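for the recovery benchmark. tokens below, seq after
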């Protein structure tokens, strides 16, 4: 799940008192495990809340390693409905792992209160996974999300295909051809993207030869040159563009109301009035500081 959107609350709702706390090996990051209430044969792990699967913080490293190496049979991805674009960034990465995913679209009540709405059925269709509306604080939809996850567990996930621009997809295809056969079919796209991003952990793990590494660098450098940007920024932009296409027509937001600050900005940053107002303010500042208050203070 993502940070600050009811992840721990949902975990507590699922497991009740059937949970225990420890640490992930080698780090001080909390690990919470528990069985779903009424289902003693299940095991749910509350992974650290993150926004991305890039290995920078200890939380991100722990979550990524767990999903890749511990082979969970299903993933419940908690998405904050009030900040959906930012939260779906992680979702696009999780779906590339080829695991069955259930999205718990949390804080739907707050989103609706703000006058927004979303077609969760169409969202699920476009993402290729199940979506359940939840309000973790009140326990709404939590059981449904858990039951769906249990039902989907062990099934093959729907890996997104060709969701980026053509030149990036071409680079991913080239990179996929470089990967050794030892990389599993469901992880080949994810691995290719990570190698394209120069992810040293992934590159070391799949044991590329020096020749393969040189070719991979050539592909990445080619993309950076044609886009005139660094690869991390390029892939980040591609993901957000993909998210925008997913949400197009299914996310409805109310027209933004102008705040008092917005109204003031319309006047003071006006292309005609802006400079005269600026000069007037500057004159006022210097008048006060030199001719009046400033002189009195100096005297």
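predicted aa per position
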């Amino acid at each position: 799940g993502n940070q600050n959107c009811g992840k721990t609350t949902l975990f507590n709702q699922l497991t009740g008192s059937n949970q225990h706390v420890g640490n992930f090996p080698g780090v001080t990051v909390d690990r919470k495990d528990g069985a779903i209430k009424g289902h003693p044969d299940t095991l749910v792990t509350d992974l650290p809340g993150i926004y991305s699967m890039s290995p920078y913080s200890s939380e991100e490293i722990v979550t990524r390693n767990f999903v890749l190496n511990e082979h969970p049979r299903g993933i419940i991805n908690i998405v904050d409905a009030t900040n959906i674009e930012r939260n779906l960034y992680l979702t696009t990465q999780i779906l590339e792992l080829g695991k069955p995913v259930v999205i718990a679209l949390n804080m739907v009540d707050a989103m609706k209160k703000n006058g927004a709405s979303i077609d969760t059925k169409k969202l699920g269709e476009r993402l290729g996974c199940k979506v359940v509306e939840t309000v973790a604080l009140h326990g709404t939809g939590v059981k449904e999300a858990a039951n769906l996850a249990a039902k989907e567990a062990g099934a093959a996930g729907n890996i997104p295909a060709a969701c980026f621009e053509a030149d990036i997809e071409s680079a991913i295809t080239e990179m996929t051809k470089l990967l050794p056969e030892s990389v599993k079919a469901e992880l080949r796209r994810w691995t290719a993207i990570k190698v394209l991003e120069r992810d040293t952990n992934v590159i070391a793990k799949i044991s590329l030869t020096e020749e393969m590494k040189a070719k991979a660098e050539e592909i990445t450098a080619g993309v950076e040159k044609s886009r005139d940007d660094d690869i991390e920024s390029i892939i980040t932009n591609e993901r957000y563009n993909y998210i925008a296409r997913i949400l197009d027509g299914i996310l409805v937001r109310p027209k933004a109301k102008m705040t008092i600050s917005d109204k003031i900005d319309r006047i003071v940053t006006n292309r005609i009035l802006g400079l005269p107002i600026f000069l007037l303010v500057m004159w006022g500042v210097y008048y006060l500081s030199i001719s009046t208050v400033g002189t009195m203070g100096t005297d």
